[in-house]
Amino acid sequence: MEKKNFLKDETFLQHPFILILALALGFVIMDPLQMGPVGGHEFKPVKHDIAPYKQVMESWPRDNHSRLGDGKLEFVDQVFGPESLEFDGLGHGPYTGLADGRIVRWMGQAVGWQTFATVTSNWSEKVCARGVDSTTYKQWKHEKWCGRPLGLRFNKESGDLYIADAYYGLLVVGPEGGLATPLTTKVDGNPIMFANDLDIHKNGSIFFTDTSKRYNRVNHFFILLEGEATGRLLRYDPPTKSTHIVLDGLAFPNGVQLSKDQTFLLFTETTNCRLVKYWLEGPKTGGTEVVADLPGFPDNVRMNERGEFWVAIDCCRTAGQEVLSNNPWIRSVYFRLPIPMRFLARMMGMRMYTVISLLSEKGEILQVLEDQKGDVMKLVSEVREAQGKLWIGTVAHNHIATLPYP
């Protein structure tokens, strides 16, 4: 029997619906008018290593009372995108880095917020200070000039504050504040593209994350959309003033936290929705293991006085998002559709709200607090347990939230 050759007799291409569909699909893939969310970018989605959606979501406990929604909004429209929250050796604070490029500290009701430090001499109120607009697109073109301080850590013995800035790398400023001093902006001769978070080892070494070799903070969403894994865990050694690559090939490495005995550190991989352990001592030195697969996209991780770990999570994963994760070619088409990103996210079933979780060093879930309606925060960056309460920071909003705890 003779096989029918659709291409040869052209009946396939002559069908109006098929032809229009093929042309429309080709138009979307090419995106010549750059109307999609990834328009104008060299978009190279890849499959990434994420635990199965059903396995994670069925085993993760829920906070049916949405207790985080009872949190109190503090300093509304006084702080702009306060990602990381820190207290000095005397318990004063909080200190936080803002979207306008400053590090500020709370001086009490009588004084309010005071500028403590800046990360660059470029900073000026005229160019950088946009108030509540600092957390919007209006600040984006100024970020690289003004700086964007993210992770903060005090050396409690010296009083020095170490800063991971998205554009100016790793810096330090003394107890009196002022202009921070750069420590490192390169590793192996290549620039640190997106310094994100840090922690300080007892020997003085500073572990910090560089989220991507390809994208800076303003374009951080493309890291998630692509699933690209060019991020690194780095170490800066003060005596030699040298920077070393500890781990490479990470998918959006973000928060960093040393354990209480400092035999290991934990870091979050935002794209892969997981918390990872890196061993610093013992028979597993230099090895990694997944401590917990998470229901959403983690940011910073911080330890309390009991040696437990608070993880800030932007929630939640969906079945549709898993389909995109496992099929890069679908992502390549989907995010080129001429539809705003917020609508594409809703079509995947995504509804952003906040989850914070307390985990043991073995990954046991000790506490889950949710804000299912987004009453307090729709996006969360960090949770600090201090002074009898949880202090909750966010890179996206103009306030801090607090909740009495325990």
TrEMBL record:
Any single Gene Ontology cellular-component annotation: vacuole
GO molecular function ontology, one term from the record:
hydrolase activity
- List locations, semicolon-separated: Vacuole
The record lists the membrane-crossing segments as: 12-30
Gene source species? Acer saccharum
Question: Can the keyword DNA repair be found in this entry's annotation?
Answer: no
SUPFAM superfamilies (UniProt xref): Calcium-dependent phosphotriesterase
InterPro entries (UniProt xref) = 6-blade_b-propeller_TolB-like, Strictosidine_synth_cons-reg
Kindly provide the name given to this protein in its UniProt entry.
Strictosidine synthase conserved region domain-containing protein
Q: Which UniProt keywords apply?
A: Glycoprotein, Membrane, Signal, Transmembrane, Transmembrane helix, Vacuole
Q: What family is reported?
A: Belongs to the strictosidine synthase family.
Q: What is the lineage of its organism?
A: Eukaryota, Viridiplantae, Streptophyta, Embryophyta, Tracheophyta
The Strictosidine synthase conserved region domain sits at 196-282
Q: Which Pfam families match?
A: SSL_N, Str_synth
